[in-house]
Amino acid sequence: AIHNHFLSNEKDYLAKAKSLTFNLKKNENLRLSVLSGAVTPDALVTMSATQMATHELQQAREQIYESSTESRRTDWLEENKQQIQAVIGIDPTNAWEYDNDDDRMSEPDTDPPDI
Predict the structure, then answer these.
(1) Cβ atoms 49, 16 nearer than 8 A
(2) Torsion angle of alpha carbons 57, 58, 64, 70, nearest 10°?
(3) What is the per-residue pLDDT across 80-100, written as a single tens digit (0 to 9) for each?
(4) Whole-number pLDDT of residue 1
(5) Spatial distance between the Cα atoms of 65 and 90, rounded to a whole number of angstroms
(6) Burial letters for 37-49: b for 16+ Cβ neighbours within 10 Å, e otherwise?
(7) Does pLDDT of 26 surpass 70?
(8) Which residue has the higher pLDDT, 81 or 114?
(9) Any idea of the CA torsion for 42, 46, 49, 54, to the nearest 10 degrees?
(10) Where are the extended beta strands (E) located within the chain?
(11) Is the pTM of this model over 0.70?
């Protein structure tokens, strides 16, 4: 099957052969799926390294992805405000908030914004 997919490119053929060898040695579930026929040779050849990874490695990658996505959230502080306040001992019902205009904590504005 690998030969049929990489007829014209020896470099890609060798890279895929190395990837298949490595992943079949490391991933017992993948190996058993191929031996049982659950994964066909054609399907195996078209799988990415990520798809061939062990379940544990896939979970670790997913956690890293979720963590990095969470860290890029622009609303992270607002989403976690109460947890942070509880950890540092601030009453979450306190109405004070961070004011970006003057870079300090202040009471929230009660006046409607100027338009």
Answers:
(1) no
(2) -160
(3) 888 888 888 877 776 666 666
(4) 76
(5) 31
(6) eebeeeebbebee
(7) yes
(8) 81
(9) -40
(10) 97-99, 104-106
(11) no
